């Protein structure tokens, strides 16, 4: 059985089409866990209506605690041998779980990921899928090392578009005290545990990009708050690399974090930069253009 975890907050406009794409899957052995995270619109009512129509659906209503708590709640009660995450405004192909499950078993993998396509309007979804001929396998560490810091990394680092063996999530949960980039603390730890990861090129997941929205999940423009939160997440990743002696990944992560520090300093209003970020910049001052280095140095000296 596959446990499908869907965290839900104020998505009444889009939730029905998401749930329709899940309950109509050609792979029927699903446990569909809907965690209504204190929605103030009709999302909770929609969850209850769908649970009346489909006995596979379990609905949890909780006060608003954020997506980390919602996903953790789903993981805590999941009974399936496999875990899948879906965002409540996205849509999946009717064969999404059938193809992922069969390919995962055939390739003897612990995790599998597919390609995805983003859309703003429902008619943009193309239900035709690509051939399954092109599949690749990796071990968890090489997967993280080789793909984490490439330019086109979205499909590798997000939670959705993947099917996981449940054991990968044993004693692994999302940080409840983090409200931005919370998945960045978790996904690589999950992948590191995998002996084999399978990747297929097939487009099976359709990621919804809201038209005229300034918060388009993965595709949102540069935000200093998000980038600063990502800096914190990378610090956690650096600590993980040190603890597990992952020296190549450690170097890549440190280099990437230093570049982000530089980007934050150049693009962010100085009164918005936390003091510890300025201190980090001072320690890594060679990454900053010379005129900017002087400013950072003077700021530290005449503090």
Which characteristics define this entry?
303 residues; Spore Coat Polysaccharide Biosynthesis Protein SpsA, Chain A; 2 domains; 9-stranded mixed beta sheet; globular
What's the short version?
With 303 residues, the chain is α/β, with parallel strands linked by helices.
Number of helices: 11
- The overall pLDDT, averaged over residues, is 85
Largest sheet: 9 strands, mixed
> How much helix, percentage-wise, in residues?
40-55%
CATH fold name of the largest domain: Spore Coat Polysaccharide Biosynthesis Protein SpsA, Chain A
Q: What can you tell me about this protein's structure?
A:
By secondary structure, the protein is α/β, with parallel strands linked by helices. The protein has eleven helices and nine strands. The chain has helices spanning 12-23, 43-53, 67-77, 96-106, 140-147, 154-157, 187-192, 224-243, 247-267, 275-283, 290-301; strands at residues 2-8, 30-37, 57-62, 82-85, 91-92, 111-119, 135-138, 162-165, 197-208. Strands 1, 2, 3, 4, 5, 6, 7, 8 and 9 form a nine-stranded mixed sheet that branches. It is globular, with a radius of gyration of 21 Å. The N and C termini lie far apart (59 Å). It comes from Apibacter mensalis. This is Glycosyltransferase involved in cell wall bisynthesis. One of its GO terms (molecular function) is hexosyltransferase activity.
């Amino acid at each position: 059985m596959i446990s499908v975890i869907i965290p839900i907050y104020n998505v009444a406009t889009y939730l029905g089409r998401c749930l329709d794409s899940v309950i109509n899957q050609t792979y029927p052995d699903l446990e569909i866990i809907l965690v209504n995270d204190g929605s103030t619109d009709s999302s909770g009512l929609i969850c209850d209506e769908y649970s009346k129509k489909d006995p596979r659906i379990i609905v949890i209503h909780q006060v608003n605690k954020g997506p980390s708590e919602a996903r953790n709640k789903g993981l805590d009660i999941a009974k399936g041998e496999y875990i899948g995450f879906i965002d409540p405004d996205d849509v999946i192909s009717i064969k999404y779980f059938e193809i992922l499950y069969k390919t995962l078993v055939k390739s003897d993998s612990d995790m599998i990921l597919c390609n995805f396509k983003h859309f703003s309007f429902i008619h943009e979804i193309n239900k035709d899928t690509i051939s399954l001929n092109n599949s690749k396998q990796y071990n968890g560490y090489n997967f993280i090392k080789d793909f984490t810091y490439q330019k086109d990394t979205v499909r590798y680092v997000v939670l959705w578009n993947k099917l996981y063996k449940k054991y990968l999530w044993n004693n692994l949960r999302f940080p409840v005290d983090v409200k931005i980039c919370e998945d960045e603390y978790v996904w690589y730890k999950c992948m590191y545990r995998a002996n084999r990861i399978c990747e297929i090129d097939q487009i099976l997941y359709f990621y919804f990009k809201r038209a005229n929205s300034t918060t388009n999940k993965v595709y949102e423009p540069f935000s200093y708050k998000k980038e600063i939160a990502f800096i914190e997440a990378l610090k956690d990743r650096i600590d993980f690399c040190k603890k597990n002696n992952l020296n190549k990944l450690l170097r890549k992560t440190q280099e990437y974090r230093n570049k982000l520090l530089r980007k934050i300093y150049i693009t962010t209003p100085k009164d918005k930069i936390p003091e510890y970020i300025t201190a980090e910049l001072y320690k890594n001052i060679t990454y900053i253009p010379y005129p900017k280095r002087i400013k950072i140095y003077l700021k530290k000296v005449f503090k």
